[in-house]
């Protein structure tokens, strides 16, 4: 089995990317390690620098852009940058592991374009926009304004689905996790 491949998981916020990644990463056969992104957004309660994200100031992030330290970056929300560090991908590949990325839909399309057959892009879809709003509300991590902003953006982001290698609807969590694991397992067995 080859190592060092990239698995891209993208979807609008609240579709279940983090939840699904949290499950599949436990499967030792997939040899996955999470690519910790850099961001300028504030840490949420319980988030740890260097675990969930590298939390940077805007100045630090702009330095990273200038110094060409990022594979890709997006201003996912106004004034909030998110980006994949080249050093993260290199670190994980040097360990002989496959890299799993939780990135927004535009970043997902860009990374797939860069890495071609070495990357697999998976788009997670919600059963409906209504369900998405309910999940964001029950997650309880974002203000109503932030939730409205995220749901407002979701309809547009869902139009990116057909630019991904595969699509998985996250309705019943266990079924979605099983399907994602099956897709990744097939991909990493390929040369
Ligand atoms: P994302 O990482 O895409 O923003 P999360 O993984 O944080 O999304 O999921 C958003 C919320 O929805 C969380 O509270 C999570 O527990 C919940 N959730 C995820 N998948 C399901 C599912 N299949 N059924 C019900 N709730 C779910
Ligand atoms: P959150 O603020 O909910 O953690 O993430 C918001 C969005 O930013 C999610 O869609 C997430 O996938 C995306 N994101 C996280 N890291 C990156 C990254 O490195 N690059 C890009 N383009 N998007 C990212």
Produce the secondary structure layout:
Elements: E1 6-10, H1 17-24, E2 32-34, E3 37-39, E4 53-55, H2 58-66, E5 70-77, E6 80-85, H3 86-94, E7 98-102, H4 105-115, E8 119-125, H5 129-139, H6 144-158, E9 166-169, H7 173-189
Parallel strand pairs: 1-7, 1-8, 2-7, 3-4, 8-9
Antiparallel strand pairs: 3-6, 5-6
The structure holds adenosine-5'-diphosphate and guanosine-5'-monophosphate.
Residues 11, 13-19, 135, 138-139, 170, 173 line the site of adenosine-5'-diphosphate.
Overview in brief:
This protein has 191 residues and is of the alpha/beta class. The chain contains seven helices and nine strands.
Describe the structure.
The chain is an alpha/beta fold. It has one domain (6-189): P-loop containing nucleotide triphosphate hydrolases (Rossmann fold, 3-Layer(aba) Sandwich). Helix content is 42%, strand content 23%. It has helices spanning 17-24, 58-66, 86-94, 105-115, 129-139, 144-158, 173-189, and strands spanning 6-10, 32-34, 37-39, 53-55, 70-77, 80-85, 98-102, 119-125, 166-169. The strands form 2 sheets. The protein has a 5-stranded parallel beta sheet, sandwiched between helices. The protein has a 4-stranded mixed beta sheet with strand order 4-3-6-5, with helices on both faces. A hairpin with a 2-residue loop joins strand 5 and strand 6 (80-85). It is globular. The structure holds adenosine-5'-diphosphate and guanosine-5'-monophosphate (5GP). Guanosine-5'-monophosphate is lined by residues 13, 17, 37, 41, 72, 74, 76, 82-84, 102-104, 107.
């Amino acid at each position: 089995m080859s190592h060092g491949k990239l698995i891209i998981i993208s979807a609008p916020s609240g579709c279940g990317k983090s939840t699904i990644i949290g499950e599949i990463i436990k499967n030792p056969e997939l040899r996955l390690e999470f690519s910790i992104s850099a961001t300028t957004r504030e840490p949420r309660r319980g988030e740890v620098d260097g675990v969930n994200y590298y939390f940077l100031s805007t100045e630090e992030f702009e330095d990273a852009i200038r110094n060409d330290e990022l594979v890709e970056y997006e201003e996912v929300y106004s004034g909030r940058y998110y980006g994949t560090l080249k050093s993260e991908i290199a670190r994980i590949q040097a360990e002989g592991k496959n890299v799993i990325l939780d990135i927004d839909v535009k970043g997902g399309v860009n990374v797939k374009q860069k890495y071609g057959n070495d990357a697999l892009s998976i788009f997670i879809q919600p059963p409906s926009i209504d369900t998405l709003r309910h999940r964001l509300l029950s997650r309880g991590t974002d203000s109503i304004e932030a939730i409205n902003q995220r749901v407002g953006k979701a309809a547009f982001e869902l139009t990116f689905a057909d630019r991904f290698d595969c699509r998985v609807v996250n309705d019943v969590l266990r079924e979605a996790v099983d399907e994602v694991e099956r897709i990744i397992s097939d991909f990493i067995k390929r040369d």
